[in-house]
Specification:
Rossmann fold, single chain, 9 strands, disordered N terminus, alpha/beta
């Protein structure tokens, strides 16, 4: 492990969960343990220019980086990491401002700046070759990071090496924010506006009521919401500044989407898997087709009746598609 990691804790699920605590570190460790699901899960910390970034690590093999979406964090991958651990060394960071990582005042949270921090994270891990998976806002960040890797309009060179000195093997995009989903083109910029941000801050006072409502809307069928999910996503609220972080992201949303669209031609030669829930109400599945046209070698998988979080709502099917894409081997089940 790189010397940039400040500490590592091995998190293994306990038979009885510890008592609730207001201590953020204890909550963080408990959530990491719950995400382990029978595999050795390490909760790690890395110094990112003076800020502490938390990430989970599991498994062995080729590196796979998992990027969460807006208001998500490494907890989002609690069903993905155990399934992928036999095939890859899986890293799931809490991006700065999210999860249990530090909230940094004034940090640039544009998609391009966040993508560069992802590559900085990968570099400090000591990883030179990796697969990259991003969902929702993290999917857009993944596209920007991929473009930084491959560089130039021609995409990957013969050795698969990009100008950033890091080799991106494959890209997996799960309902990525993109310019072709009309819903996201107006909603996020609204909340990034002065009026929208003011309304959002008023809503914070009623977050106990609203957060479960917003969360339920991410699923195609509420009966598919796994037990403990809402509590897991609300756990980082113990660390102040989470919603201010979200507001800082949406302020640059319109400009970011223009940059994503301009970046897409650079990714033509990157082998890419796109996965979507057919009932996604956050990033419409209808945007998958125009997005996929940018790749020479891509595959689109739509999960019927599933919402914005297929890695939770149909975890088994999602993991099967992901493993088959990464290993080129059929998975039974």
């Amino acid at each position: 492990m790189s010397g940039d990691a400040l500490s590592t804790r091995t998190a293994t699920p306990a038979a009885t969960a510890p008592a609730a605590s207001s201590d953020v570190d204890e909550i963080s460790a408990r959530v990491a343990a719950a995400a382990g699901a029978g595999v050795q899960m390490e909760e790690c910390w890395m110094d990112m220019d003076g800020a502490n970034m938390r990430y989970l690590r599991a498994g062995s093999g080729p590196a796979l980086i998992l990027l969460h979406g807006l208001l998500g964090y490494s907890f989002s991958w609690r069903y993905t990491m155990p399934a992928l651990a036999p095939y890859a060394t899986v890293y799931a960071p809490d991006m700065l401002g999210a999860g249990f990582s530090d909230r940094v005042d004034g940090l640039d949270h544009s998609m391009r700046a966040t993508a560069r921090r992802v590559l900085q994270f990968v570099e400090r891990l000591g990883v030179s070759e990796f697969d990259l998976l991003g969902t929702s806002h993290g999917g857009a960040v993944a596209m920007m990071a991929a473009a930084e890797c491959v560089g130039g309009d021609a995409g990957l060179d013969r050795a698969g090496q990009g100008r950033a000195g890091q080799r991106l093997r494959r890209l997996i995009l799960v309902a990525p924010v993109n310019p072709y989903s009309a819903h996201g083109r107006w909603l996020a910029p609204f909340f990034g506006s002065r009026i929208g941000a003011a309304l959002f801050r008023v809503a914070l006072a009623r977050m106990t009521f609203l957060y479960p409502y917003w969360h339920m809307r991410m699923y195609g069928d509420r009966k598919h919401i796994p037990p403990g999910t809402l509590a897991g996503y609300m756990a980082p609220l113990a660390k102040p500044g989470l919603f201010e972080h979200a507001l800082s992201i949406v302020r640059t949303w319109t400009r970011d989407l223009r940059e994503v669209e301009a970046t897409l031609p650079k990714l033509a030669n990157v082998p890419t898997l796109l996965m979507w829930g057919g009932k996604d109400s956050a990033v419409y599945a209808s945007s998958a087709e125009p997005l996929a046209r940018y790749w020479h070698n891509s595959r689109v998988v739509i999960f019927p009746g599933i919402g914005h979080l297929p890695y939770e709502e149909c975890a088994e099917e999602f993991n099967r598609e992901l493993i088959e894409f990464l290993t080129h081997e059929k998975v039974s089940g």
